[in-house]
Specification:
366 residues; alpha/beta; three-stranded mixed beta sheet; 19% strand; flat
Length: 366
């Protein structure tokens, strides 16, 4: 299951966002370090295709893909040296797949900011610097060990030395270790060492409710310029923690009316989840039958053989073929029977590359 860690300075809207996304009731208050132990919430991944398919098939249950959000304690300047809840904060980040960095981009005299006046660039730079300093301290110790082992002729240690040196150079230049994680070995070393700046990062800009429909506020513009200077490919998802918390209390028509009134089409959860999927290069395939309509998550580029293993090792071990049709084609046909009569269902082998929205029916023998 995908784990996204919600990080940022204290009092920028992390726990309010977490509560809205998960309805978990995590403690949220107007003072620093409200969150000590990380709050964890598992939520379904929004996917309209599940409902559309269920209307045709009438299954006994609908099973969406799931995503886990982790609300991590706020970090302050000096966290890499143990200030505030620094060590605790950094250890929790090492356990997630990617970070959602929440940055406040609106003024509100009633909500305390630990650093004083609004300054998205300052807030971004504090978190970025603390992650970098923590990484450099870990890498320095690791490099000394790896170099000693490499002198004995250990090829793996020599590769690790090369990776660490490249990572240190990237971090020192302000780009983060993620820019040098390229090969499978690089990924392995980054995970073993626990490099924070190697983790993918998605920026969540907490804007005023009035800026949701037209996010052109000064704070958001400042954040965009700052992020592009450090991490060109990073995505910024504007949201309003206050708006999301109010939306989470509504359902049905009231929810739709509330969104329309704000001039937006979808809640922050949808945008953040899609951003997380793009960030980690993930996609969805589906299985459809009278028992259930279900969504499964696989990496972009995964094969039918990989997808079979996601369901069960027996599917992979006895793989024969995958009967495949895209959701769009299935919805137009209306049923498997009609789709087969129209020649829309294909028989694919183990090397078939799965496309987002594929419906797969596996034939196997064990």
């Amino acid at each position: 299951m995908l784990r996204l860690g919600i990080v940022g300075l204290p009092n920028v809207g992390k726990s309010t966002l977490f509560n809205a996304l998960t309805n978990a009731g995590a403690q949220a208050a107007n003072y620093p370090f409200c969150t000590v132990e990380p709050n964890v919430g598992v939520v379904p991944v929004p996917d309209a295709r599940l409902r559309q398919l269920a209307e045709l098939v009438q299954p006994k249950q609908i099973v969406p893909a799931m995503i886990e959000f982790v609300d991590i304690a706020g970090l302050v300047k000096g966290a890499s040296q143990g200030e505030g809840l620094g060590n605790q904060f950094l250890s929790h980040i090492r356990e997630v797949d990617a970070m959602v960095h929440v940055i406040r981009c609106f003024e509100d005299p009633d909500v305390t900011h630990v650093m004083g006046p609004l300054d998205p660039t300052r807030d971004h730079d504090i978190i970025t610097a603390e992650l970098a300093l923590a990484d450099l301290a870990v890498l320095e110790r690791r490099l000394d060990r790896a170099q000693k082992t490499a002198k004995s002729g250990d090829k793996d240690a020599a590769q690790e030395v090369d990776f660490i040196q490249r990572a240190v150079e990237a971090i020192s230049s302000g780009k983060g270790a993620r820019t040098v994680v390229e090969s499978a070995d690089d990924k392995r070393f980054a995970k073993q060492i626990g490099i924070l700046t190697a983790k993918p990062i998605l920026y969540a800009a907490n804007v005023a409710e009035d800026d949701l429909a037209d996010p052109s506020s000064e704070g958001l513009a400042q954040l965009k310029a700052t992020v592009q200077g450090h991490h060109e490919e990073a995505e910024i998802v504007p949201f309003s923690a206050k708006f999301e918390s109010e939306l989470a209390e509504l359902s049905g028509e009231e929810r739709a009316e509330f969104l329309a009134g704000a001039g937006i089409e979808e809640p922050g959860l949808d945008r953040l989840v899609r951003g997380g999927y793009r960030l980690l290069h993930l996609q969805t395939f589906l299985t459809v039958g009278p028992q259930e309509v279900r969504a499964w998550t696989v990496p972009v580029g995964a094969t039918a053989f990989d997808a079979a293993g996601e369901i069960h090792s027996d599917f992979q071990r006895g793989f024969i073929r995958a009967e495949t049709i895209h959701t769009d084609e299935f919805l137009k046909a209306g049923s498997y029977k009609t789709a087969r009569e129209q020649g829309l269902v294909r028989s694919e082998g183990r090397d078939y590359v799965v496309v987002d929205g594929d419906i797969l029916l596996f034939r196997f023998n064990v």
